[in-house]
Design goal:
cilium, name from scop, cell projection, 2 strands, alpha+beta, T3SS_substrate_exporter, flagellum, Related to flagellar biosynthetic protein (FlhB), two-stranded antiparallel sheet, globular
């Protein structure tokens, strides 16, 4: 099975909702993950969520139906980031 990855961006001041900024499989997915890791971005593994998010066109906001699931991930990420920030 090929690796898949989707990257989201959310700037509270600019975006109404998170948007898909990168999506791919195989080597593209590996590059997305490596770029995120190099930038210190938290990587969440969730195959079902990736399948849903991969259907969204690049630079499009996620649909309202995914707000709940994505907000849980973002909430966890913010907690993790706050825990390790100095």
């Amino acid at each position: 099975m090929q690796k898949k990855a989707v990257a989201l961006r959310y700037h509270q001041e600019e975006d109404r909702a998170p948007r898909v900024v990168a999506s791919g499989k195989g080597i593209v997915a590996e590059n997305i993950i490596e770029t995120g890791e190099a930038a210190g971005v938290y990587i969440q593994e969730d195959r079902d969520m990736v399948e849903l998010l991969a259907q969204i066109e690049l630079n499009q906001e996620i649909p309202m139906e995914l707000y709940g699931a994505v907000s849980e991930i973002l909430s966890f990420v913010y907690k993790v980031n706050g825990k390790y920030e100095k």
